[in-house]
């Protein structure tokens, strides 16, 4: 078996660009995906694939560019993903639970389970909106010099995929497992029961959304199988019922 065959690459990742403004970046990004064994490419917004700059800058990765899927919004682009991680240059402080970001070197292994993981990158000038970030399971940031925190879109994708590739890219064919990752719908069920339990607790009103968001942050950073989430859902539902009866 050749060295190329032994390195399977990051083949369960999907790179999602939200409304990219420069077709050249879209082409460069296709080349980066090819460098690290990523074949799944999605673009939210207008279709830039046939722009001359996109085609020229994609070079030998034109097949990845041409096969990119176009979606009208981020929600639809993530509908079949098992996990989604959003890149941001704006980092919240420790007390900001909705914007708390994981440093890129601390991202978990995306190859740990048999499921698809989306890496979401925003617009070159404004990044992702808060509503778009809320659709993702966690937020990560690339450590850079404080004096110039903004990175070119294709460079940010390259740095991210390089970091994940050097740490997690498997050697040899992937091992098959019976464990299936939890779906987005399965996670939403446990979130719903947790939210209902929090609403029954005797805590200050302003703390309720914080508690709910922290729970989402914790599950978003964890790889969970469908069986694990089903077990957690049953426990949280019983806790909700217990709180209601004691209220």
Report on the architecture of this protein.
Strand 1, helix 2 and strand 2 form a beta-alpha-beta unit. The N terminus is likely disordered. The chain is elongated. Helix 2 packs parallel to helix 3 and helix 8 packs parallel to helix 10. It is 43% helix and 12% strand. Strands 3-2-1-6-4-7-5 form a 7-stranded parallel beta sheet. The chain folds into 2 domains: 166 residues, Alpha/beta knot, CATH 3.40.1280; 63 residues, no CATH class. The relative contact order is 0.15. The protein is α/β, with parallel strands linked by helices.
Please outline the helices and strands:
Blueprint: H1 3-6, E1 13-18, H2 23-35, E2 40-44, H3 52-58, H4 62-66, E3 69-71, H5 74-77, E4 83-87, E5 102-103, E6 117-121, H6 130-134, E7 138-141, H7 153-168, H8 184-200, H9 207-220, H10 226-246
Parallel strand pairs: 1-2, 1-6, 2-3, 4-6, 4-7, 5-7
Helix pairs in contact: 2-3, 2-7, 8-9, 8-10
What's this model, at a glance?
With 247 residues, the chain is of the alpha/beta class. A 7-stranded parallel β-sheet has the order 3-2-1-6-4-7-5.
| Spatial extent as radius of gyration | 20 Å
CATH homologous superfamily of the largest domain? SPOUT methyltransferase, trefoil knot domain
| N-C termini distance | 64 Å
Treating each run of at least 4 consecutive H or I residues as one helix, how many helices? 10
Main beta sheet: 7 strands, parallel
Write down the oligomeric state.
Answer: single chain
The third-level CATH topology of the largest domain is Alpha/beta knot
Q: What is the tally of beta strands? A: 7
CATH class of the largest domain: Alpha Beta
Approximate helicity band: 40-55%
